[in-house]
Specification:
By secondary structure, the protein is α/β, with parallel strands linked by helices. The chain contains 20 helices and 18 strands. The protein has three domains: about 160 residues, Periplasmic binding protein-like II (D-Maltodextrin-Binding Protein, domain 2, 3-Layer(aba) Sandwich); about 150 residues, D-Maltodextrin-Binding Protein, domain 2, CATH 3.40.190; about 180 residues, Rossmann fold. α7 packs across α13 and α14 packs parallel to α20.
């Protein structure tokens, strides 16, 4: 089994959101190895990225209690990896993850937290266009995962979901689907996964959108317009318009957002965490949480927000061992999901000789080869004054080493020379990709400067507008690096439905790794 390796370099791209007395807004990015200094009344919290919407609530709690929360947001699985490695011990006071289920399977991480208390909850659900519900003749209160599978297998339903390797909502969805289609009556086993694999393979043929974050997934769904449904947490789906939100009656996995002290902290810090926990579970705050975020309150006296279905649904158990959880994830990554197809448009102009920029690019790409999936197609398209070469490699399941070694050789052979033809090179990337509906297709653009030669932005806008519909669905994910122009790259991302990744304040390694959730 070739399991995906989660590298700590990805953490360098994480945002540090400071809930301050003045603004409650977003602070500049900081390296996770450079966190805020420990201070009385201040909690440095390792938090799941989806909790960024809790900023206003945390600011109100600060005013009431004097406790300032400084969250560092990252994917739940990356946070567990950081806890297990011991790298969180000196830098964080508490952990606030979407769920402790995966953490409990990782012995090294489980012993790092103490006194976990649930703050709110949100189950996995399916958000479906009302017209699709009517077309399929579904009764939302009676829907099962088998019915969803049947609709997908018949070609009557397409959907989007987040990447289970990086998103707890995606991982919880994967477990819910596998449990429902395997007929498991208890925690998933390897035998359950094997039994469900043929149906799971059919089910994931219907996945047309993938993402590293729920926010971008919602935007991509709205932009595409031709995808029938989204699989995500109920709270995310209820925050969108024109979706019928359904919890399959045969069960789902629920996030319960436990707040926990870290075992490495002192008693005073743990007391501050306890005070924060009590404040977040106070009835008035619970009411604000459910009404603002559509998560469910955990205090019995507080009614759920209007629109939350209060009917009972089966709660599916998490896999009972880490090997089963990792095996399911490996099967999804390398066998079940659609393969990835990506063109890496890489600036190798003369300016890449400065500050060892080319060396940093080679290091980041070489490290990334450990994360490429089976069946993935990777094209390297270095450019200067024009595209210098087009080299495509496929990571074939029967011989992955050949493809990966080819990527490493071509990466090492990169040289810096020429001007910077960003838009001409992007046009070549789209022409190379053509249309292919059976892959998750994208373009990654890495540049350290502004466009200086060839097609200009208006030329590219016209080129993009003239592409067939299928090609216009291919997003560009630009990476801000060196002296590149933020406005220029933001326009490219917005035009194509991509997202900008910042390696100026983080790391190039981290930016490339973060993009993996979108491929």
């Amino acid at each position: 089994m070739r399991l995906r390796q989660v590298r700590s370099t990805a953490l360098a791209a994480v945002l540090l959101l400071a809930v301050t007395a003045c603004t409650g807004g977003e602070s500049p990015k900081e390296e996770p190895g450079q966190p805020a200094e420990a201070k009385p009344g201040v909690l440095r919290v390792l938090a799941s990225s989806e909790l960024s919407d809790m900023g206003p609530v945390l600011e109100e709690v600060r005013k009431d209690t004097g406790i300032t929360v400084l969250p560092t947001y990252m994917g739940t699985r990356d946070a567990v990896d950081r806890l297990a490695s011991g790298k969180a011990d000196r830098y964080f006071d508490a952990a606030w993850l979407a769920s402790s289920d995966y953490l409990s399977l990782e012995a090294g991480a489980a012993k790092k937290v103490v006194s976990q208390t649930s703050i709110m909850s949100s189950p996995v659900a399916i958000g479906v266009k009302p017209e699709t519900v009517r077309r399929l003749g579904w009764k939302p209160e009676d829907l099962t995962w088998s019915q969803v599978h049947q609709a997908v297998a018949a070609g009557d339903l397409t959907y989007g979901m987040t990447d289970p390797s990086r998103s707890n909502s995606g991982f919880s969805t994967l477990i819910s689907v596998a449990s429902g289609l395997s007929g498991a009556q208890s925690a998933l086993t390897d035998a359950d996964v094997d039994r469900a694999t043929p149906k799971l393979a059919e089910f994931f043929k219907g996945q047309e959108l993938t993402s590293g974050s729920s926010g971008w997934l919602a935007s991509a769904y709205n932009r595409r317009g031709n995808v029938d449904a989204l699989l995500n947490y109920e709270s995310v789906l209820l925050g969108m318009k024109d979706l019928t939100v359904i919890r399959p009656k045969d069960g789902v996995v629920t996030a319960d957002y436990p707040l926990a002290s870290l075992a490495s902290t002192d008693q005073r810090t743990r007391e501050t965490v306890r005070r924060l926990t009590d404040a977040l579970r106070a009835p008035d705050v619970q009411s604000k949480i459910t009404n603002r975020t559509y998560r469910r309150p955990v205090v019995a006296s507080v009614p759920p927000a209007s629109g939350l279905d209060t009917s009972r649904r089966r709660e599916l158990p998490f896999p009972g061992s880490k090997s089963v959880a990792d095996g399911l994830l490996d099967a999804y990554e390398n066998k079940l999901r659609r393969p990835s197809r990506t063109v890496y448009v890489l600036d190798t102009s003369g300016s890449m000789r400065e500050d060892d920029r080319l060396g940093k690019l080679k290091k980041a790409l070489t490290a990334l080869t450990g994360d490429f999936r089976d069946r993935e197609e990777v094209t390297l398209m270095p450019f200067g004054s024009a595209v210098k070469s087009v080299r495509t490699h496929v990571v074939r399941p029967e011989d992955p080493r050949t493809g990966l070694d080819g990527i490493r050789r071509d990466t090492e052979a990169l040289t810096a020379a020429g001007d910077t033809a960003i838009y001409t090179s992007l046009e070549k990337a789209y022409e190379h990709l053509g249309t292919d509906g059976d892959t998750f297709t994208s373009i990654v653009l890495m540049t350290d400067g502004e466009n200086t030669v060839g097609a200009g932005p208006e030329d590219f806008d016209g080129f993009y507008a003239g592409l067939p519909g299928g090609q216009r669905e291919i997003p560009v994910f630009p990476i801000l690096f060196g002296d590149s122009d933020r406005a220029e790259l933001e326009h490219i991302a917005e035009l194509t439905g991509g997202r900008l990744f910042d390696a100026q304040k983080g790391s190039l390694d981290g930016a490339f790794e973060e993009i993996r959730g979108y491929q």
